[in-house]
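thought: fold this chain, then report.
action: predict
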Amino acid sequence: MNRHARVLASAAALMLAGCSSVPLTSIPPLARIDAKTTDLSMLRVAVQLPDALRPRSGGVKLDVVTKVAGEAEAKTSFAMMELSARERGGLPAPPQSSSIFAYRLSPEDAVRFEALRASMVEQGKNGKRGSMGLGVAAREFCRANAGPQALLLVTIYLMTSETKSFIPVAKDFDLLSDPAMAGGLESLQPCGA
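observation:
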C-alpha cells in the first residue's frame, strides 16, 4: 500500500480519533459497545463515499487495539467482507452522487477475533488489567471517473449487538478539508487499474 492510500485510511479511522464530525446523538449508543463481549455475528460497518471514490476489494479492515498492563499496545487487523444486498437493511439511502458500502467480519477473522478476546479475558483472570478498542479503516481506495469535486464527504456507520442499528460514527467529514488527505487523492489509481 502506498503512502497516499495510508493517508486516506486515516479518514475512515476518524472514529478512533474522536473527530468533531461524530454526531452528539451517536455518543450514548457508541459508549455502550463492549469490544470484549459484543456479538461478532452482528458486527457491521458501512462507509458512505462520494461517487468519485470507491474502496478497493479487501481494503476495509476492523482494527482491534489491545493494551495489557506492563506491555506495549498491540493492533490486530481483521478483514471485512462486503455485505449482500439483503444484509444491508437499516442503512439510510445515500444522498445523490454518493454510494454506501457495507461490510461484516470474514468467518476466518471472526474466529481470530474470538481467540484474541479469549486471550484478553484469560489475562484478566490472571490479574493483568487490559483494554480493547475497535476502529474501522478503509485503507485502499481507487478513483472513479468523476470531475473535480468541491467537497468529498465521507460518513462511517457502525452496528453492533449493543446498538442493534447502524449508528453514524463520523458524519460528513470532508476529505478535502485535510491537506494531507487532499494531496493523497491526487495520486489515487483509477478504479479497474
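thought: worth noting. The beta strands are 44-50, 53-55, 60-68, 74-82, 98-105, 130-138, 141-143, 153-159, 167-174.
final: C-alpha cells above.
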